[in-house]
What does this fold into?
Amino acid sequence: MVIVVASILLAGCENSLKDLQKISAAEVNKPIQRFIDVDLIYSDSARVKAHMTAPLMLDYSTPKNADNKNKDTTKPYTEMPKGVKVTFYNDSLQQTCTITADYGIRKVADKVIELHKNVVGTNVKGETFTSDELIWDENSKQIHSNKPVHVQMTDGSILDGLNFVSDEGLSHWKFGASTGIIHVDSKEIPKQ
It folds into this structure.
């Protein structure tokens, strides 16, 4: 009889321990902090480089279980699940470009912001860049992507390519492989 009661108690404790582990695991996956109407300034050597706004930012200061292939969950990160807008500035505090996306994630230790879903960037020349992903690397001061990027230029020219890389202002950019339609001004050829 004592063995039966002890077995029941141990089984009851085991179930409770499993329930506690499930609850604990669920708590680990929750953000540490939640920010609404985020307005951040990024600076380098006391110079404003970028201004980021987001309606919601979730801070995961502790690693999260690997449940999403887009996230390096072994390091702290912040997530902007309801959209993000980043405006870049040059050393004279003139706006150089603006990028918006439906989703963003900042890998804190790597100083990288990944912008995903309906990413649209516009530079001061009026060129528009669209993609499913653009990555801003704060260390290299570059924006890049290995996903297709579509560029609509002000003269109507269109370029589509892969292996996109640019400066933070989207003014000096290049593709590894691309196709497109380039408009060329033709002048009347003089008769000989």
Remarks:
- Residues 57 and 80 are 5 Å apart (CA to CA).
- DSSP finds one helix and 14 strands in the chain.
